[in-house]
Design brief:
The complex is a heterodimer of chains A (224) and B (578).
Chain A: E1 2-10, E2 20-28, H1 34-44, E3 65-67, E4 70-72, E5 84-86, E6 93-95, E7 98-99, H2 102-108, H3 132-137, H4 145-149, H5 162-173, H6 182-188, H7 208-219
Parallel strand pairs in A: 1-5
Antiparallel strand pairs in A: 1-2, 3-4, 3-5, 6-7
Helix pairs in contact in A: 5-6, 5-7
Chain B: E1 2-11, H1 15-26, E2 31-34, E3 50-52, H2 63-72, H3 79-88, H4 91-99, E4 127-129, H5 133-147, E5 151-154, E6 157-165, E7 168-176, E8 182-192, H6 214-221, E9 226-227, E10 232-239, E11 249-251, E12 261-263, E13 269-271, H7 279-291, E14 301-304, H8 312-322, H9 327-337, H10 339-342, E15 348-357, E16 360-361, E17 375-377, H11 394-412, H12 424-437, E18 444-445, H13 446-461, E19 464-465, H14 467-484, E20 487-488, H15 497-521, E21 530-531, H16 539-542, E22 544-550, E23 556-562
Parallel strand pairs in B: 1-2, 1-8, 2-5, 8-17, 18-20, 19-21
Antiparallel strand pairs in B: 3-4, 6-7, 7-8, 9-16, 9-22, 10-11, 10-15, 12-13, 12-14, 14-15, 22-23
Helix pairs in contact in B: 1-5, 1-11, 2-3, 4-5, 4-11, 6-15, 13-14, 13-15, 14-15
Classes of the chains: A alpha+beta (224), B alpha/beta (578).
């Protein structure tokens, strides 16, 4: 057991400033994680600290925060001395590490974020061959890290849906049951901004460039 | 304060609540879908990726599946519920896919024998893989909700209490974390789909942090009965260290593969043929071995998977772990135990972790809560389907089958005669009680009480139980209840984390007490319930369900009621009968 200091971003919606880092002294073991430390602070020092978590196993995507400026799963990232833990970028903050997901999903509504079929299947369960890209994209954690790492995204800018927006549209594009023109939607969502940019990363390892951005740009006649 | 009304209020945004909401809205009901987390989360979001389909031979009408559920559940099941589930299981993927999810198929795009797996306790291969696991299911379900504009959603909203009058439920009073608003919902019908209570065992659980058993207590307070709350499923293979990863699932019996061996610290095999055993059989073997002092320094046993790498079927399983749908589990093993363990060259230190509540609210086949008007329930919050042990892959099926049954029934029973007149003084009373908690200054920090409860659950009401410890547990719960009257809660408006903890602890306390009282009452070992002081299953005395309810003074009372063996009874069950 060793003592280290970590810096945690605090934002109080009922306060006067836009938030600042606060230092905490915490006890760590060899494999202590960022989530463990946030929980330790919550349990033993300050239970007004707001952060999300769900499964502790990299599955739900709820605990993702910036660690030293990079998006990480808090549940499996090792804590280090003087680490700076802060909320993801470009999103409306509610309190401390917690941001509001609603503006993104409200924006997505206009793109019909669900399967639109031409006709109902004759027999169910129907015969379906699933493209591997679809299975891969449906494993998206919706953790918002890709939006945080995008140099262009801002939740108030309606001309650009950002990488998560493109992923959501691509899920439906690869879904053999869906009948809408999702390529035009990607265009409307501003995917042409992604030509010559390789800013976004997926912390779950979904190859955004290969299976989302390049194919859409290709179908829109743009080479990367 | 915001006041609104609807035909049907669905409380719970996992698979069961969403299915009920969609089905009811398609029947014309005006639905509010409320979730403590986001919609499409909870434990549905983090499932490992298997769902029971039933047998391909439809002429058997689910008879074999039914028998396996009841035999696997050690005969505590409500057989009418099991029969409904087994008969309709084929409909589960149909519903999931109508909403937007997808199950794995063969190369021709069919659900065939080629893609069905045999999971422990099932006597034939009847479980499907879900290619994108929990996130795929969660997002598919969200598509389903997004498409139905008539469903109003309330996310990050916790119920404070149900509105009740003369044995009838009339809606709920809630707090929305993200907005800070108190929301009053008047509803003609209310449905509980809040999931289980695994988080009361934190950190010894692989469930989501929202699983605090809210619906059990809401139902108790409304006059419902809970059945067999002592039956908590421990998934056998969970991590024992490091501290931040304790309790995380890394497999279940099936994933031991054909050549996996489970050993004690001395290298002696403790149970053979692990892959086809039920979860309770494997967990109980580990628990009892560790009790004998044959565990590792972390208290676990050793799961050695290495021989699978040389076994024809075992190799396929290894590939699933190395690069397929179970890769996420291997990643966790690597983070905890290192590369050699993740490559199956070294055994894994494993101990069971709280995974699923078999017990819960007493319902009939249509999800109607017995004894309470206007109240329905489906999914993990209900009891009876799984008896003393849930077979792997069946809970996913249950969400859709009983979500549909309850949603249809609730919508069908809404008539023009139902009125939404709720006595204003009743609403004001509830809202004032909730407001009274915000900014309360007392002696005790809520989180300390919550952690004390969780620690007590594991140590006194955990996997290996005995009378003395259970009584000590109940004593500790009493002291927590007393301290809970004198707590401190922040006065923050938005995202008041201490208020959330307090509201959850308020639900967790009766749940903890229900589990402990039921465990104390059942003087035998059956299903997932181990009594060190009563180590045998005793069919002569204990073919009974343990029922918990509130008595007239509001105290929890416990009684035993003979199981209704409507179709199958011990002796006719065959196969795993001893």
């Amino acid at each position: 057991m060793e003592k280290i200091t970590v810096k945690v971003f605090r934002y109080d919606p009922e306060g006067e400033d836009n938030g600042k880092f606060e230092e905490f002294e915490v006890a760590v073991e060899e494999k202590s994680t960022v989530l463990e430390i946030l929980m330790q602070i919550y349990d033993t020092q300050d239970s007004s600290l707001a952060f999300n978590h769900g499964c502790r196993a990299k599955n739900c995507g709820l605990c993702v925060v910036n660690v030293n400026g990079h998006p990480r799963y808090a549940c499996i990232s090792k804590i280090t001395a003087n680490a700076e833990i802060s909320p993801l970028n470009h999103l409306p903050l509610i309190r401390d590490m917690v941001f509001d997901r609603a503006p993104f999903f409200d924006y997505l509504e206009r793109f019909k974020p669900y399967i639109v079929r031409e006709k109902d299947p004759d027999t169910e369960p129907e015969t379906l061959v699933q493209p591997p890209e679809h299975a891969r994209l449906m494993s998206c954690r919706e953790c918002f890290a890709c939006l945080s790492s995008c140099p262009r995204y801002g939740y108030q800018d309606e001309s650009f849906g950002g990488p998560l927006g493109f992923v959501k549209i691509a899920q439906l594009h690869y879904d053999v049951r869906d009948s809408l023109d999702r390529v035009s939607q990607a265009h409307k969502m501003g995917i042409l901004n992604c030509v010559d940019c390789s800013g976004c990363t997926c912390i779950s390892g979904i190859p955004l460039k290969q299976i989302v951005i390049k194919p859409f740009l290709g179908l829109l006649g743009k080479q990367q | 304060m915001i006041e609104t009304s609807c035909d049907l209020l669905c409380i719970g945004g996992g698979g069961a609540g969403i299915t009920a909401a969609i089905v009811a809205s398609e029947k014309g009901a005006d639905v509010i879908l409320l979730s403590k987390d986001h919609i499409g989360y909870g434990n549905t979001r983090i499932i490992g990726g298997i769902m029971a389909y039933g047998d391909l031979d439809a002429s058997r009408q689910g008879e074999d599946f039914f028998r396996d559920i009841v035999v696997g559940g050690d005969y505590l099941n409500n057989q009418k519920l099991c029969l409904a589930l087994a008969k309709e299981a084929h409909n589960a993927p149909v519903l999931l896919e109508r909403f937007g999810g997808m199950v794995k198929r063969d190369s021709k795009g069919k659900i065939s024998a080629d893609v069905l797996l045999q999971v422990g306790g099932h006597t034939s291969p009847r479980s499907m893989l879900l290619p994108s696991t929990g996130p795929g299911v969660g997002q598919g379900l969200r598509y389903g909700v997004a498409r139905r504009k008539s469903i109003r959603t309330l996310e990050k909203t916790i119920v404070f209490d149900l509105l009740k009058e003369g044995g009838k439920v009339l809606g709920a009073v809630c707090y929305q974390l993200t907005s800070g608003e108190i929301i009053v919902i008047k509803a003609k019908k209310t449905l509980l789909a809040t999931g289980g209570g695994g988080w009361i065992y934190y950190p010894h659980t692989d469930t989501s942090r929202v699983s605090t058993g809210d619906g059990f207590t809401l139902a108790l307070d409304a006059g419902a009965e809970l059945v067999d709350m002592e039956q908590v499923q421990y998934i056998p293979f969970a991590l024992t260290h490091p501290s931040g990863m304790v309790g995380i699932i890394v497999g279940e019996p099936m994933t031991a593969g054909p050549a996996g061996i489970l050993k004690n610290v001395h290298g002696k095999e403790i149970i053979s043929g692990v892959a086809l055993k039920t979860r309770s059989q494997v967990s109980n073997a580990i628990i009892l071995e560790a009790e004998k002092g044959n565990g590792t320094k972390y208290g676990g046993c050793l799961l050695d998977l290495k021989a699978n790498k040389e076994h024809p079927q075992g190799k396929i399983l290894y590939r699933h772990y190395a690069e397929g749908i179970f890769k996420c589990l291997n990643d966790l093993v690597k983070a905890a135990y290192g590369s050699a363990a993740a490559e199956w060259e070294e055994p894994w230190d494993v101990y069971p972790s709280a995974h699923y509540f078999m017990g819960g609210i007493v319902i009939n086949e249509w999800g109607e809560v017995e004894g309470v008007e206007n109240l329905y329930a489906c999914g993990e919050v209900t009891g009876g389907v799984h008896g003393g042990n849930r077979l792997g892959s069946v809970s996913m099926t249950e969400l859709f089958i009983f979500g549909k049954r309850a949603g249809e029934r609730a919508a069908g029973e809404i008539t023009g005669r139902d009125h939404l007149e709720v006595d204003k003084s009743l609403i004001d009373f509830q809202v004032e009680r909730l407001r009274g908690m915000i900014g309360k200054r007392g002696k005790h920090r809520v989180i300390e009480l919550k952690r004390k409860l969780q620690k007590t659950m594991w140590e006194k009401v955990g996997p290996a139980r005995e009378e003395e410890k259970l009584k000590e547990g109940l004593e500790i719960f009493s002291s927590i209840e007393e301290k809970f009257q004198d707590i401190t809660i922040s006065g923050a408006y938005k995202y008041n984390t201490e208020l959330l903890d307090a509201l959850e602890l308020r639900f967790m306390l009766p749940v903890a007490r229900s589990v402990a009282l039921s465990a104390l009452a059942r003087k035998e070992s059956r299903g997932a319930h181990i009594r060190l002081d009563y180590p045998e299953r005793d069919d002569r005395c204990w073919l009974k369900n343990i029922i918990v309810e509130r008595d007239l003074t509001g105290e929890l009372s416990v009684r035993a009621r003979p199981v209704e063996l409507t179709h199958l009874h011990p002796g006719t069950g065959s196969n795993s009968e001893k």
